[in-house]
Amino acid sequence: MNIRDQQILHIALPSIVSNITVPLLGLVDVAITGHLGSAAYIGAIAVGGMLFNIIYWMFAFLRMGTSGMTAQALGARNLTEVVAMMQRALLVAIVISVVMLCLQVPIRESALMIIRPSAEVVAFTCIYFNICIWGAPAALMLFVLTGWFVGMQNSKAPMVVAMIQNVANILLSFVLVYGLGMKIEGVALGTVLAQYIGLVSAFLFFAPYFLKIRKYYREKTVLTSTALLKFFSLNKDIFLRTCCLILVHFFFIAAGAKQGDTELAVNTMLMQLFTLYSYIMDGFAFAGEAMVGKAIGGRMRGIYDDTVRRLFRWGWGVAALFTLAYFLLGKPFLAFLTNDATVMDAAQIYQPWTLLFPLCGMAAFIWDGIYIGATATKGMLISMASGMVMFFLLYFMLVPLWGNHGLWIAFVVYLATRGIAQTIMRRKIWKA
Q1: pTM of the predicted model, to two decimals?
Q2: b/e per residue, 144-155, with b = 16+ CB within 10 A?
Q3: Which pLDDT score, from 0 to 100, does residue 393 have?
């Protein structure tokens, strides 16, 4: 195996392991609350979990921006900036966390006003939110540390931290709920405590780096106007891009709900196949962030070109395997998720659209990692905005004619448009 392929797998595989622990944790939380005696507990976890997913998703630029800029500084052998990047991003994460804590009541009430769950679910969601919000500082600082580790070409540390955090979350939730008799508050408290355990673990992994690079610390370089301007300029693009992504995905869910409970259930199940694929492809995107950023920082054009080619070879290979798996195992997977005959019959009608997920979405995932590593965030924003426009255009044109099939066409074209737009703009990456 080529050395570049080995480097890609060295970063991608631990990242994939980190990613696949996420759905396991959500499954355990649902399983715990599902045995508390009321469906409202499950509803509170669903609503509260969705709310925090949106909040943290919006601030994912703390991870993405940090990884690309750190990788470039490492490639340029600018260790002063490597140290400053960590401190700068952590300060921003802390400020955002303080603002979130100060505004927690308006954030909670605004979200509940939009979602409008039942009164009982609202009560439990408030309990869950009021506790989980105190984990925001840990969650956002973990974004920064994860991005910094990836930028330093180390994806094993985030993998171990994620595993420690998720195991701690599961164990603490079980002890608090079944051992101490707590209910929804036990699940929430377990989540918060696990987030801080994860943060402490991440700082322990950072300690050896700190001992080696602390001599490069220069206080005046952390908050210079030039550095801050670049940091916020790049992260503004990532933030707006994430807002577009959230809008598409949640409009997709809402559009399915408008068509009836059966279509909503089917779309939710089929999206699990896309989510599974995205967890795997994100691992290769992480490899792109780290390796491309380092190559660009070091002005190594040959290594950059070779890395991009090999990332796409891995991407096409994974896409082909997933397409085959969805074709052969799609029906058994759906049968595992539900035994409702009506939902199962409807799911098989729309299942062929899942065969297009891997091939239409692959380029977008790989290019996202490359663009982040190159800090060419404007291109990411343009491609996402283009995809979003295509999604809504096709939605309003096709759904009145073809119903749920029109919705799936809009989503698949949205994925493809992102990849096509980034491919067209690819020559600007090195210039950026």
Answers
A1: 0.81
A2: bbbbbbbbbbbb
A3: 94
